[in-house]
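Q: Hi! First time doing this. I have a protein sequence and I read that you can turn it into a structure. Is that right? Here it is:
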Amino acid sequence: MKPDFEKGGGLIPAIVQDAASGRVLMLAYINEEAWERTLATGKAHYWSRSRGKLWLKGESSGHVQLVREVRIDCDADTVLFRVEQQGGAACHKGYASCFFRRLDNGGAWVTTEERVFDPEEVYSK
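A: Yes, that's right. Below is the predicted 3D structure, encoded as structure tokens:
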């Protein structure tokens, strides 16, 4: 069985979870090429909707995701990558997880963790 890329017009969501802790790190999208490259290399590849191209997670930052397990949902239109996150951060804004903000009772967004790296230093290379 492989993902049904036709359902999403060629792209399907990929939920990315830390294999050790179970923490959700990010949500990305994959197309068939990203799927094949991920399986072939053991490193997470995604489709960048903003850049319109395939990318290896960590190609700029060095924070590669080593895929330890792959799961597919019941409709075959979403995958779950359980990864070993290299460099301690999945988020391009420098946080371990892309879900670093929480909505408080007053309706304000609160940053709940410290940055692992400074994005301006990492991405200015």
